[in-house]
Design goal:
Layout lengths: L2 H12 L6 E5 L5 H9 L5 E6 L2 H7 L7 E5 L11 E3 L10 H9 L1 H10 L1 H8 L10
Parallel strand pairs: 1-2, 1-4, 2-3
């Protein structure tokens, strides 16, 4: 199972969270939800939202019972979900130069992480952040 879906499932299990409905904002081509669909209980309903026509066109190819994708802004809906995911949404920032600087540091970051992950995170930053909120 791809890394992001695996991490989401790990967080859910560690916190004894068993959602029956999951939505992803900015679902893109829908692969994260597709991976969760394949790995979670068959009574969970998944809905992906994205405002990109191209992304939803790709995501719709993954649709099946309990997994659907909508081209709309979730803020314009009255839908409610047990769990809301926003994966790879926060990096869409205006500070593109800062973002590129993080990309340049990938190799040194990986090497230092293998030696000592805590020091790597403190000194170099730029690691993925998964946050569970209520």
């Amino acid at each position: 199972m791809p890394w992001k879906a695996k991490q989401i499932i790990k967080i859910l299990k560690q916190n004894s969270i068993n959602p029956k409905s999951i939505a992803e904002v900015g679902c893109g081509a829908g692969e994260i939800l597709n991976q969760l669909y394949q790995s979670m209980s068959n009574d969970v309903i998944f809905t992906g939202y994205d405002i990109s026509n191209d992304a939803i066109r790709l995501a719709k190819q993954r649709e099946k019972k309990r997994l659907e994708f909508k081209r709309e802004n979730i803020l314009d809906t009255n839908s409610k979900f047990d769990l809301l995911l926003m994966i790879d949404v926060f990096e869409h920032i205006d500070d593109y130069l800062g973002f590129l600087k993080s990309k340049i540091a990938v190799l040194p970051r990986k090497l230092m992480y293998k030696a000592n992950k805590d020091i790597a995170a403190k000194l170099l930053g730029g690691f993925s952040l998964l946050v569970l909120t209520k």
